[in-house]
Amino acid sequence: MPILPIVHHPNEILETICERVSNFDKDLHCLLDNMYDTMIAEDGVGLAAPQVGIPRQIAIVDIGEGEESELIELINPVMIEETGTEIDIEGCLSFPRVYGKVPRAQMVKVKAFDRHGQEYNLEAEGYLARAIQHEVDHLQGVLFTSKVVEYVEESELTDWSEEQLQR
Asked: Which residue range forms the structural domain that includes residue 106?
């Protein structure tokens, strides 16, 4: 599958509220597959459609590696519950070499659709919850930089792996 170009800030599409998906067809399946290949090629753990120039409510997340890998496809996602708060460092494929401490809910429940148009509910906590919130924010035109409470220099990231920083 082709690797899609990542949209970097500043770009208007990154701050656009995305349109809902209504067609769950092979074009959507192809886009999801291309987004996955792009996310892996860029060493990310999540990717939202506006980050590849498409203003639609489509995001993917996969925080695992190898056998721990599990792709989550979020189409038209809605947060239905958020509890707890924790602050951790985030980065973003659309903001190369920019990192900051961001408060997020520790646990989330989200309602979304899969590539076949089947609605499902998902509960996530910790790092997975953070990645989902980051990607769902993209679909609402909200950038992680608007939530940063403290920026972190790249040289201060020695305790963090590249995988943990790319979202």
From this structure: 12-165
